[in-house]
Each structure stands twice: as structure tokens, then as C-alpha cells.
Amino acid sequence: MAAKVKNSEGVKLLINEVAKAVGVSPKELIGYYEWKANLKKLKTKKISKKEALEFLKSQEGKRKISEEEAVRIYYEAKEEVRRWREIERKLKKLGLE
User: Fold this and answer.
1) pLDDT value for 1
2) What's the pLDDT tens digit per position in 65-78?
């Protein structure tokens, strides 16, 4: 039987306690679950190589980004994914994932 959440204080407490157990902030924990949900959406969306190339060609000239900016974004994303994987590992260790 599912219970209705009438008071968000209980939810906040749960998030805070799980975040504390994992060693992250509540904001980071919520960010992790948002990333996980988006990752699931990406995995279910299928796109062929031809469609991907067509999309990339359609974007030529629309977006200007320097190579330095692209490299910076790549390394930021790589670090963020590393952090999410670390949180995932800790949640699994606690039996919460």
C-alpha cells in the first residue's frame, strides 16, 4: 500500500540522511538521480548513424564553439560523470541503488 506524502519534511529528511551516508550534499544526490533518469531516456532513444550525421550536418554554421571551449566542456562532462559513478558506487555499497 502506497502512502501519500502530506509533509515534505519527511522526504527532505530522507534525502538528507541518504546524502549524509553517501558523503555528498542533498543537491548532489538529487542531481545524481536526475542524471540517472536522463541517462535512461538516452538509452531508450535509438538513432541511426545516418540520422546522426544528418543532424550534425544540419547544425553546421549554426553553432560556433572554439576548440578550447569544446575541450573544456568535454573535461567538465567527464568529471561530472566520474562523480555520478562514484555516488552510484557508494549507493550500491549501502544497498540503496
Assistant:
1) 41
2) 888 998 999 999 99
The upper half-sphere exposure of residue 17, i.e. CA atoms within 13 Å in the direction of its Cβ, equals 8
SS (H, E, C) the chain: CCCCCCCHHHHHHHHHHHHHHHCCCHHHHHHHHHHHHHHHHHHHCCCCHHHHHHHHHHHCCCCCCCHHHHHHHHHHHHHHHHHHHHHHHHHHHHCCC
**Residue 79 near residue 71, CB atoms below 8 Å:** no
Query: Any residues with CB less than 8 A from the CB of 29 and at least 6 apart, and which?
Result: 15, 18, 19, 22, 87
Residue 45 C-beta-side C-alpha neighbours within 13 Å = 8
Maximal C-alpha separation, the chain: 55
Higher-confidence residue: 27 or 1? 27
> Which cell numbers hold the place of 74?
568535454
Task: Please compute the mean of the pLDDT values over residues 24-47 and round it to a whole number.
Answer: 88
